[in-house]
Amino acid sequence: MAMPFVSGLPVVRELQAAGAETVRARRLILFFTPNGTIPQEFWPVETDGALQFGRILAPLERWKSRCLALKGISNKVRGDGDGHMRGMSCLLTGIELFPGNIQGGSDTPAGWASGISIDQELKNFQQAQAATRTRFGSLELGVAVPDRADPWTRWSYAGPNQPMTPMDDPGQVLRHLYGHLQEREALGSVLDHVSADLRGVAGRLPSGDREMLERHLTFVREMEVSLAEGKREVLRRPPPEFPEGGRSGENEAIPETMKRQTALLVNAFANDLARVATFQFTNSVGNARPTWVGVQEGHHALSHDPDLNADSQDKLIRINEWLGQQLASLVQQLDETPDPSGDGTLLDHTTVIWTNELGKGNSHSHDNIPFLLIGGGHGFRMGRAMEFRNVAHNRLWLSLAHASGHMIPTFGNASLCEGGPLDLS
Q1: Radius of gyration of the chain from its Cα atoms, rounded to whole angstroms
Q2: Which residues touch 423 (CB under 8 Å, ≥6 apart)?
Q3: CB 106 within 8 A of CB 82
Q4: Which of the residue ranges 175-184, 196-205, 213-222, 390-399 has the most confident prediction, judged by mean pLDDT?
Q5: Is 280 left (phi over 0), alpha (psi -120 to 50) or beta?
Q6: Local structure of 145: helix, strand or coil
């Protein structure tokens, strides 16, 4: 009976094993916004070796020497599911959706993604090494993500059929990151009773249930070791404090929720609680109404209007300008925060990747997916715009893995990895 309580508490780990080899931190933030972009205002132009930003990227002007725009990268994953479903759930996984019964658009129904996402792949790689292990490994954050689970709302996957649920309530994130400081004593008293009870019942279970129980026992043993050996960690930065009030699920609360989630993410990285994060604004087919920039219509509805509708185009640009401002706020905070290693700032050790499930909303195109990389976490050569000839985005994830020291031969659908990682040096 106590197992759900135990499973709901954070696993306390040493931030780094004693005497572990010092390894340069490679942090990663994947930043998602939906419904495609406005190409003429997104893609920068490189003139005489300098980037020229349009309206959407203008908020990032200060960091353009640390930006790398990648044009000509496409999501070539096909199979079941409509364009939005595959755009979202195949974006980080690079592999097909399972057959399923979730119907979308006019295409075939589908289920969850059939493979792990790149964020979780890199999280597992880092967590397997004492020098790069952190308490949480990764964080999955959201803003105004609908209260439902389907391929339109999930882009991070722990494995086949294992979607990761983003936390879109800042209060929940705060408890997730720092609630263990108050739970330590309660946890210790529960573990003493749980361990004996679980071992006593193990011999009377079928093999399948016994395997599941063994996983629970392993979890309990890890908790016991953590409590016995771990000391209360000294935070480099105290948890952020937010005023009471406001509901994160309300449309008008979106700007404040974005600010709080950004502050929590930067704080978690500053305390080295995780080195990988996904930050998801709404979802595929996201229909937030950005009234704070003077737009009353829903984002997704506007994205279906034709290019010749000047009013809709202007509103979509304003929406994406605002999203660019939110990304700039995240980048600025990373750039102003010392890295836990003592070497430079968080931005020096972080690669932020802004992307989307579509190239253009009104055509549902998976070609020319917007990819903008910012920061210095993985040694890519920044301050330029690169154009490829319709290459599969699997190759970009391979580049990211190899730059992280994870030399996997393929990622996602192996047939889409032909040519190997992109050369971003």
Answers
A1: 22
A2: 399
A3: yes
A4: 390-399
A5: beta
A6: coil
How far is Cα 380 from Cα 126, in angstroms, rounded to an integer? 19
Residue with tokens 């991070």: 156
* Structure-token pair, residue 372: 């903008």
Please return the burial class of 301, using the count of CB atoms within 10 Å of its CB with bins 0-12, 13-18 and 19+: middle
368-387, pLDDT tens digit by residue? 999 999 999 999 999 999 99
pTM over 0.70: yes
CA gap 344, 349 in Å, rounded? 8
SS3 category, 363: coil
* CATH dotted code for 26-180+250-417: 3.40.720.10
Alpha-carbon gap, residue 30 to 352, rounded angstroms: 6
Alpha carbon separation from 347 to 92, 95, 114, 343 (Å, rounded): 22, 30, 33, 11
CB atoms within 10 A of CB 395: 22
Per the listing, tokens 């009471």 go with 244
Domain boundaries, given as residue ranges, for the chain = 26-180+250-417
